[in-house]
Amino acid sequence: MPGWLTIAKWELMRSKLKFDARSIIMLMMALILVVASSYAASQTGMSMNQKIYLVAFSQPDVQPIIETDQRFDYMLVDRYEATVYYEYGADMAIIGNNVYLADTRKAASAGDALENTFKEYREIVLSSYNDINNTHPVWVTVHDLERPQDFQLAGATDTLDELSRGYNRTAVLESVPGGSEAASGDGSVRTGSSTISPEDIEALDAMQGKTFFERQTIATPSNFNPPVPFTAILYAFLFIFPIYFVSQFYSTSLMDERTNRKGELVLIAPLKSRDIVIGKTVPYLVITMAIQAAITLYILKIPSTLADVERIVLILAAIMPVILLFFALSFYSAILSRSFKELTFASVFLSVVISGYLFFPAMFANIHAISSISPITLIVRLIEGESVPMNTYLFSTLPFYLVAGAVYAFGTSIFREEDLFTQKSIGSKIIDCFEMFLSYRYGSVFFLSIIFIPVVYMTQLMLIVMLFNLPVPYSIIAMIILSALAEEIVKSIGIYTLFKRKISEITFKNAIRLSILSGAGFFVGEKAVAVLTLAPIASSAFGTVMTMGALLLIPLLLHITTIIISSLVMYWKGPGAYKYAVVAATIFHTIYNMTILRGLLF
């Protein structure tokens, strides 16, 4: 039996023993109670909005209308009593054909609610005649138009200047179904539905019986709801929340073994560190994937065709790298932290950062190319029946795979007694990871820079998410500065480790040699990742900042020059001046980037 499988079985048994029989029974009873109460509430129509507005009216024919809205607490009285109630506490009075509102914000809200109630009641009455096309002669079919990419550079398909002059506007209008031409096929117009208006009440009920997550495709003018990014947020919450929950158990299990020192028994076993890490991770990974599969089946229902099965597999493939990254960060946090307090802070901070990376771009699903940054956008598109090209899948998920792999590799390298059961500082443990890598036979700053490329890449994508809504000149300037800072840190951290831990002697020759290796490694990795993943936003200003065009020799010289600046500062002032070295290199790097992009900025 493989060693990791033994550890996995032991981890499952150990986790099971944390809950005794009494705790499990209480947990199951609480779950059953929650489900039963939720079902009862849904059946009885209970709501927090029941009877929040008090209305007095004198006409009996108004009562059937008011009764359809549970927000109203009503009284049927004569005209005089209705006036009295209106003067002494009622939010609204209906006397004759007039509606009287009190002078309060609550009464104003009651007036809006009454207006909507009358509209909905009219729809109910009209629908009851079972003559849908005569009672509803006007229907609205929803079609989705792609938003113009207003941050593209000159030379792209639609530049900002062309869009401001109305470029391609006629083609877009003509390609709307029902216009002079069919959809153009260039992606400018996406039809939301081919649905025609219903013939009878049964057809209307079938249309309105869509699931909670389906978008509105046809409606009457009074029932038309503009699209909002609410659905994407719900998808993100449904898929991400179980990952939060399981990752907490995962990191707590690792931390518990460190604090009670039971992990020492595992370390002395004849197993490699990677077998122990894999064994501890696999049970939680399997459980999380099972939960994700259940959620997918709940949304898409049981598959009936091969295409349905393929959609389910693709959705799980899109969420898989997200799970791996969450687990990798939880694993690394559990190793670096010295107490449960530090672990809680690290877990919450990293979860918030990754959640922002996932949630914010997904809000622009089907609206903007930037939405492809988040794997949740892929899930939304797959659920809505759209196809996802392979280059878009790589663009969204490859950073997650690569960063998760790098984090697990560095964490596994210090999965040893010196780092697990000592009170080393977090910074010292991080440097230990790099020292272990550089101490290997084939370890060098060249390969370390390549390994760090996905981290920089993902950081830059996060910056796009954060800076996306700022005005273009300022957002690009901020992107340039922060991207340069991230690049200079990862290029120089290997040299800092060699000098700090005295693995290499601090000499002028070593500073230059290591700088050339580190800069060349970063350049090679940067171009490889750009070719593989940046196609969806390659024509955008943000994509240009990340790749700085197709030049070869000048970017290579730039990376080597900036790392030489960092290395020489450490050579003159020692490793303690590392932060000043990074700042100096960042300033030089920023000046270069702004010079190259001056046409876009000024």
From TrEMBL:
Keyword Ion transport applies:
no
The name of this protein is ABC transporter permease
User: Which terms are listed as keywords in the entry?
Assistant: Membrane, Transmembrane, Transmembrane helix
Q: What PANTHER family does the database record attribute to this sequence?
A: ABC TRANSPORTER PERMEASE
Q: Where are the transmembrane segments?
A: 232-252, 282-300, 312-336, 348-373, 393-415, 445-468, 474-499, 511-535, 541-565, 577-601
